[in-house]
Amino acid sequence: MIGFSTPRTYTTKAVVAPEIVTRATTGGLSSLASMAGINVNNLAMTDAMHPDMYPSIINSTSFLIKLSDLPVTVETRDSVVHTDLYDYVLHYTKRPWWSFVFGAPRMAVNGVKGLFSKEEEEEVEGHALIDSLRLTRQQEGVIKRLSRSISATVDKKSYVLQVRVTFQDPIISAQVANAVIDYLKEFVVKYRTEKARDNMEYYQKIYIKTQAEYLTAQKAYTNYVDSHQGLASKSSLVYMTQLQNEAQLRYSMYSQTAQNLLNAEAKVQQESPVLVVVQPGIAPNMGHPSKVKIALICFLLGAFLGFSWYAFAAGYMKKTQ
Q: 179 and 107 in one domain?
């Protein structure tokens, strides 16, 4: 009963090597830290996005809510269903019969509370209407099941991140594992480059402004020169010189802003971290648990208990005789 009532699951493993960013340390400080047994690399982190935080990010509610919108394809006996991960976890994953037995008291209590509750809870299907600040019971249950299906660990020495995803469909398991890595990359890049991107957007605005001012000054100078050709009055020459100096000044500002914009764009590229996918998620062929192993273990255990009980009963009967 246990073996054939347990749904088979498939676990996909993906491995990622994150980039470790450190600031330069002087030779004296590095040698003193080594003598004291202190890992300089751990002390030289330039930001708060340490690889040790990646498992917490992956299991955060906001991350799982975003992941629940992942499009997946479910193959049933009758048809192929295109849906999202939220709907798959809610409607297309099997649960063993004892989960309903042990969950019956809680369901009964929630049902009684619902009868006396003045506020009616809306049944929200899918990902689109999820409010991260206030989840319904159904949404909270789906997020918890996602959290149990996705785990991540970081090696303390090499900081290699290992992601394990377990679902009842091997293709969906591999798809979710790769999506977790992609979403983590997006999150880390956004965090690390946020300040650099703000600077780049600022310089883009200044660049557009200085470009327009330079073109306006240049046009005023050329128009005045064209309209005053052949005039040699002192006032016209002075004003022409002023317009020329203004155009040169605006060009200098425009050129400097363009250089700053190029540097800001290069800074964004420089600050973008590198997460090397050592092993991508691949759909596993073998699932677990093995029903044959469970049946064999239960048979051996039952036989042992049966023979033990028979031996105990036989010895007890002899004593009573």
A: yes
Retrieve residue 259's tokens. 């250089």
Residue pair 160/16 in contact by the 8 Å Cβ criterion: yes
Interacting residues of 109 by C-beta distance below 8 A, sequence separation 6+: none
State whether 75 and 217 are in the same domain.
Answer: no
Q: Which residues contact 96 (CB under 8 A, 6 or more apart)?
A: 5, 6, 7
Q: Which residue has the tokens 């909270």?
A: 140
Q: Which residue has the tokens 């605006």?
A: 250
Are 258 and 204 contacting, i.e. CB atoms less than 8 angstroms apart? no
Q: Which domain holds residue 301?
A: 290-321
Phi, psi at residue 17, to the nearest 5°? -110, 105
Total domain count for the chain? 3
pTM: 0.67
pLDDT digits (tens), the chain, 321 positions: 766 777 788 999 999 988 766 544 444 445 544 544 545 454 444 455 688 889 999 999 889 999 999 999 888 778 888 889 999 988 888 876 666 666 666 666 666 665 555 444 444 444 556 777 788 888 888 899 999 999 999 988 888 999 999 998 899 999 999 999 999 988 888 887 888 888 888 989 999 999 999 999 999 988 888 877 766 677 777 888 888 899 899 999 999 999 988 988 888 877 777 788 888 989 888 877 777 777 788 889 889 999 888 888 777 676 666
Whether residue 152 sits in one domain with residue 239: no
Same domain, 8 and 151: yes
Q: What are the residue ranges of helices labelled H in the chain?
A: 2-5, 27-35, 40-43, 54-58, 61-67, 85-91, 97-116, 137-149, 170-192, 194-227, 234-271, 291-320
Same structural domain for residues 186 and 227? no
Residue type, 46: T
> CB burial class (10 A; 0-12, 13-18, 19+) of residue 228?
middle
